[in-house]
Design brief:
The protein is mostly helical. It has helices spanning 8-21, 28-31, 40-56, 88-93, 97-112, 115-124, 130-147, 149-163, 168-195, 201-214, 229-242, 252-269, 272-278, 286-300, 305-318, 323-335, 339-352, 357-370, 376-387, 392-397, 401-413, 417-430, 434-447, 453-462; strands at residues 36-37, 65-69, 76-77, 83-87. The chain has a four-stranded mixed beta sheet, sandwiched between helices. The longest helix has 28 residues, at 168-195.
Length: 474
Amino acid sequence: MMNLKTRPVVRALAGVAAAVIATAPLPAAAQRVPGQLFDTEMETLLADYARPILERAGQGSGRIRVRILNNSTFNAFVIDGRSIYMHTGVLMTSTTPNQVIGVLAHETGHITAAHISDLRSQVTSLQNRSLLLQLLGIGLMVAGGIAGGSAGDSAGAGGQAVLAGGSETLLRAFLRERQAQEASADQAGLELLRKTGQSGRGMLETFERMAEDNRFSSGDTYRRTHPLERTRIALLRERAQQSEFFNKTDPPELQLRHDLVKAKLYGYLNTPQTVFNTYPASDNSLPARYARAIARLRQGQTGNFEGALADIDSLIRDKPDNPYFYEVKGDFLMKNGQPARAVAPFRKAVELSKGAPQIETQLAKSIIEAGNASQMDEAIKRLKSALRGEDDSEKLAGTYIETWRLLAQAYGAKKLYPEAALSQAEAEVRIGNVKLARERAAIAQRGLKSGTAEWLRADDIVNIRPEPRPDGGP
């Protein structure tokens, strides 16, 4: 995997760029953030981290999801009131759960203070468009910093060119407001940690590390989206140390889950040799064995796969109640072209995870690809079960697109063609392909019984009208 890095000052601007870009009206498909990773083990851990924070902030009931982006930089941000986006770099560089929880508390502080709503109002109410142009220039610099190389230099230069014009006073005033919002989110996050009986040490450690990264960075301090590090760290330290929970540590079982997720990310996202260097054979801990098992399975896809499979089997013997070890085994059997062998470990993973939707989808996929007609009813049942977890925010994120497509395949295998067409229509709706979705729904409607729930859903899709384009075009 390419190791992406951003320059410190550019990384600090990324949150503003993401928020500004989010103010433009976009079709649902375009609003999905690229690079999102879907993994039940990781998402469950982050949901457990976030739950007490969100509940104490009055944002409980699962309305806000933590979503993971495959990016090695240390960054997290919010662009609406429904999702907290976190880079894999946060998990892979953190050493304790409390550090990640501190980041989540800070981002929740932005949500409760309606900072994103304020940002949208400021941008959309501007009579002078020069500020928006300059903010988009910042976005270009962020893109340039992420891209790197000649392409990155070109994009960064474009951002500098936009910044050269327009109203400098407006831009500075806007970014001063953003600085104040960051300081406010720090304090709100610390208060949420205190109210949930958790330490602010992790948040302090995180921002101390960021301050060290930025120590030698140069540039106009007015264009930095965070307060000066000395001031910010001093305020954080003072407030965090006032809490009676400052010296509280993470429970050992939570630390182990954190270390396992971190090891899993290393195993999947780094080269096998990097994994073996980071987790040497002398380290016999469960997380180290997990990372090495995944790395060896990746190597085994082009070599001794059965030998590599023994590593994950040894983890299963030691922790037979861990659903994610079975899931990894099933995943690599699928990648190695052995779907029939993947069915059993996926079934066990579904059982132990109490029906996790993503794992149910993986199980159904293994059944469909194995081509066993006698098990196709089970595949349909699993896929329908997985889809019960879908809500409006999941439709926007496109989480269940593959689930709908697999359901279409399973119905097709049973020659239930109207149901297959409706499932195809559902998938197309979620990627913003309204024309094709309406065509598939019309086909489904002709074969479904009038007035049934399926017929009515097909009718809804047939009658969808594309959103008007911002430029007034067709």
